[in-house]
Design a protein that fits this description.
The complex is a heterodimer. In chain A, strands 2-1-3-4-5 form a 5-stranded parallel beta sheet. Chain A contains 4 helices and 5 strands; from the N terminus they run E-H-E-H-E-H-E-E-H. Chain A is of the alpha/beta class. By secondary structure, chain B is of the alpha+beta class. Chain B contains 9 helices and 7 strands; from the N terminus they run H-H-H-H-H-E-H-E-E-H-E-E-H-H-E-E. Classes of the chains: A alpha/beta, B alpha+beta.
Chain lengths: 117, 461
């Protein structure tokens, strides 16, 4: 099954809850805990159709990840939606604040990704 | 201006004004003495001139008496004319001196007598010839009168000299006084200026110190306000993660029930509820930490020690944070009972704070808890293998609102280790950290086995 959505969030509670909600909606989701793991995943596996990104993270944070993503021509076009407790990513395709309004979030996600089922 | 400075300036003004007035008075005296010298010389010169004119007149008369030639009368005529003018001049010069005036009138009367005697002799020579004139001269009236005039003039000159001597002495005294005044004013002025300098410097130093204290206070207050603002913004951000997790778990539960097509799976529901509950515990801990800051700052935390097994408390703290970690990430090595007297809630808080930190900064790598004890202390160590902390940051870690890494990368109040240290201190224990950047960290605490013997909560401020 090809990954459709890559969730990047260092907070385990938020990460697992969001992942299972998206899976319930029929999306193929992979979740990682930081920017570095996300980059490793993006460079070694098939590219997802959407990245859901937290900003404040240890090590490589959301801003760093976006920067690295845009420098890689293979990855630059993947849309990014931020879900963060604080901060702004100026060139994000959509931005959400925690706690997440899931219905609104889902409608934006559906613009970029069609569920498998 | 301070009263001391104002008094100093007033003193220097008084000294200067007094000095100037005294010096002016003395200068006036000295000046008067120099004019007195000129005056004396003038009086003496005029007296001499008067005598000379009389002698001239007498010389002319004598020449005429001997020769009968009118040509010899020229000095007589000149002398007679001059005596009047010179007498008037002397009178003018001595107008303010009563003694001199009296003597001058004597001289004037005698001069008149002398001139009349000369005129009489000349007249007699013309009318009665040489013999008659000789008889007039032989009366000796002229000679006596002339001797009287000389004596009076000499007295007047001596008086002028005496006057000059007294004025010169006065001028000498005035000069001495002026010199003394100048030195005095200079010395007092220098003293006052020195005193002013000392006072001004002290005032300046004092003002400088006050100003520095004021600036320090402002800086402290600004830092406190900044810390408070930071804290409020961090607090609002930090609470969002657990609230978000609870919210999403609840959304999941609601959506499970809403999906008519699929059956609600019991295990999935249970999982979501457990997850939500773990996040609520986390939220509670965050809120407790917030509350503890004000309690610790107010010194109002009281420990309630009871006998308990520290290993059991550690396990309970581990359960609290397990939801935040991945499965099997945390290992509690060599678990065996460590019995002592502690405040259960506070010890649990200390352990869960250390575990939370280890999870947060542990990069998902294994975390090891070790618990040992000796005769007096229980020793707990929590080791992670995460980002680590540079040694120079170690002391800062335990300060309020501080953390070892940038806020952008790691949320958190920056209060966990501060609270932990305050609690450990209050229990009579100690906390230390061993870590290097990129090599993980070991936080170790030593708690006395009986905290009942230690004083209750100390204040942090």
């Amino acid at each position: 099954m090809n990954t459709q959505i890559l969730v990047v969030d260092d907070d385990p509670g938020s990460r697992s809850a969001l992942t299972s909600l998206l899976r319930d909606e029929g999306f193929a989701v992979v979740a990682v805990a930081g920017g570095r793991q996300a980059m490793e995943y993006l460079q070694s596996c098939e590219r997802p159709q959407l990245i859901v990104l937290d900003l404040m993270m240890p090590g490589m944070d959301g801003w760093d990840l976006r920067h690295a993503q845009k420098r890689d021509p293979e990855l630059a076009s993947i849309p990014v939606i931020t879900v963060s407790a604080a901060g702004k990513l100026l060139d994000a395709d959509a931005q959400f604040r925690k706690p997440l309004d899931f219905e609104k979030f889902l409608s934006v996600v559906r613009k970029y990704v069609r569920p498998l089922e | 201006m301070t009263p001391g400075l104002a008094l100093g300036f007033l003193a220097i003004i008084v000294v200067l004004v007094a000095g100037v007035l005294i010096t002016l008075a003395n200068l006036a005296t000295v000046y008067r003495a120099t004019t007195a010298v000129a005056h004396t010389s003038a009086v003496k010169a005029q007296l001499e001139a008067l005598l000379t004119s009389l002698i001239d007149a007498e010389t002319g008369e004598r020449g005429f008496l001997i020769t009968g030639d009118d040509g010899y009368l020229e000095p007589y005529t000149r002398g007679v004319a001059a005596t009047a003018i010179e007498t008037a001049r002397v009178r003018q010069l001595t107008i303010d001196n009563a003694e001199q005036r009296v003597d001058l009138e004597h001289v004037a009367v005698a001069t008149q007598i002398k001139l009349e005697e000369l005129a009489a002799a000349i007249q007699t020579r013309r009318e009665k010839g040489f013999e008659g004139a000789q008889a007039v001269v032989l009366t000796n009236v002229g000679k006596r009168t002339m001797d009287g005039i000389r004596a009076t003039v000499t007295r007047m000159e001596a008086r002028e000299d005496g006057l000059l001597a007294s004025r010169t002495a006065q001028a000498d005294r005035a000069y001495g006084a002026a010199r003394l005044t100048a030195f005095g004013v200079g010395a007092v002025g220098l003293l006052v200026v020195f005193a002013l300098f000392v006072v001004a410097r002290r005032v300046g130093t004092e003002r400088h110190r006050t100003e520095r204290e004021r600036l320090n206070l402002i800086a402290e207050l600004e830092a406190a306000v900044r810390a408070r603002d930071d804290f409020l913004s961090i607090a609002s951000h930090e609470l969002r993660n657990p609230v978000n997790a609870v919210h999403l778990q609840l959304v999941g539960i609601v959506r499970s029930y809403q999906r008519a097509t699929t059956e609600v799976r019991e295990d999935e529901l249970r999982h979501r509820i457990i997850q939500a509950s773990a996040q609520v515990s986390r939220l509670t801990r965050l809120l407790d930490n917030l509350l503890d800051v004000s309690r610790i700052s107010a010194g109002s935390i009281v420990l309630e020690p009871e006998e308990l097994d520290l290993a059991e408390v550690v396990s309970s703290a581990l359960d609290q944070v397990r939801g935040e970690s991945s499965d099997g990430q945390i290992r509690f090595a060599d678990r065996h009972p460590v019995i002592g007297r502690w405040d259960r809630l506070r010890v649990e808080q200390v352990v869960s704070n250390l575990l939370s930190n280890a999870i947060k900064y542990g990069e998902g790598r294994p975390i090891v808890i070790s618990l040992r004890h000796d005769d007096r202390f229980a020793r707990l160590a929590v080791t992670d293998h995460g980002i680590g902390i540079a040694p120079e940051q170690h002391e800062r870690l335990f300060a309020q609102f501080e953390r070892g890494v940038s806020r952008r990368q790691y949320g958190g109040f920056g209060l966990g280790l501060w609270i932990t240290r305050q609690l450990v201190d209050a229990m009579g224990g100690s906390i230390s950290v061993d870590s290097r950047t990129g090599e993980g960290a070991t936080f170790s605490i030593a708690l006395p086995l009986d905290t009942a013997q230690t004083p209750s909560m100390r204040t942090s401020a």
